[in-house]
Amino acid sequence: MSVAFFDLDKTLLAVNSAALWIRHELALGHISRWQALVASVWMTRYHLGFVSVQDALLAAIGHLAGTAVAPILERTNAFYEEQLRPLYRPGALRVLEEHRQAGDRLVLLTSSTGYLSELVARDLRLDAILCNRFEVNAEGLHTGKPLGTVCFGEGKRTCAEDYAREVGASLSACAFYTDSYSDLPVMEVVGRPVAVHPDQRLRREALRRGWPVVDWGVPAGSGPR
Questions:
Q1: Tell me, what's the pLDDT at 116?
Q2: How far apart are CA 102 and CA 49, in angstroms?
Q3: For the chain, what are the domain ranges?
Q4: What pLDDT, on a 0 to 100 scale, did the predictor assign at position 50?
Q5: 44-79 pLDDT tens trace
Q6: Of the candidates 114, 99, 109, which has an alpha carbon nearest to the alpha carbon of residue 186?
Q7: Spatial distance between the Cα atoms of 152 and 163, rounded to a whole number of angstroms
Q8: What are the E-state strand segments in 114-154?
Q9: Which residues form the signal peptide (predicted)?
């Protein structure tokens, strides 16, 4: 049994879906300019190495407290169809098919939400999703708490380890494709870590360790990403 784990943003997709979602929600009036600015500052501070995205994720989940699931799910569906669906990297689709033909399990391992991840898994015919899900009460409202392990950094590794154990796979026989240095904990435990369009820190680390660095291209008409 072998598993191929795939990150989503900037890996399977040529964009960061979180950044696009912020702009989408702002344009529709679902968040204020101030909320969009705060979210952008969190992302900038993370890229500069000043803050953990886990802190930002927990803060974002907390802000969902009291909001209804149904409207967010509906907006996520529209957002995916309108903006994300055309933005899969061509090389990603080829590699997915190669692993499928080899009989490997295809697993999305992402910090994105379950709402978006379900749509991705449906279109790409993935076998499993490891992502961030939110606690919902009996009235269909978010409680502001994560459901299970926060899927980021060390939490991503925990999710991968738990899944591999569940299906009887050795991580040494598994692959993981990602663009982000924050995913180093997972890359260090799989047998085939692959850097896809890596950020600067991951590129340096991959070159130092002799890990493959690959270019999966961008969708036609989308320009460089």
A1: 95
A2: 38
A3: 3-214
A4: 47
A5: 555 544 455 666 667 777 777 888 999 889 989 999
A6: 109
A7: 15
A8: 128-136, 142-147
A9: none
Supply 112's token pair: 């994105």
What whole-number distance in Å separates Cα of residue 24 and Cα of residue 116? Answer: 14
Q: What pLDDT band is residue 6 in, cutting at 50, 70 and 90? A: very high
The domain at 3-214 falls in which architecture? Answer: 3-Layer(aba) Sandwich (3.40)
Query: Looking at the predicted structure, is the pLDDT value of residue 35 above 70?
Result: no
Dist CA 3 CA 164 (whole Å)? 8
Q: Look at residue 190 and tell me whether its pLDDT is greater than 50.
A: yes
Q: Rounded to 5 degrees, what angle do the CA atoms 211, 215, 217 make?
A: 160
- Give me the sign of the Cα torsion angle 45, 179, 155, 211: negative
How far apart are the C-alpha atoms of 93 and 11, rounded to whole Å? 11
**How far is it, in rounded angstroms, from Cα 207 to Cα 202?**
8
Pairing mode, strands 175-178 and 142-147: unpaired
Q: CA 20 to CA 81: how far, in whole Å?
A: 13
- Nearest-angstrom CA–CA distance, 192 and 211: 8
Strands ordered across the beta sheet of 128-136 = 142-147, 128-136, 105-113, 3-6, 175-178, 192-196, 213-214
Give the C-alpha separation, 130 to 5, whole Å. Answer: 9
Q: What is the mean pLDDT of the chain?
A: 87
Burial group, residue 192, by CB count within 10 angstroms (0-12, 13-18, 19+) = middle
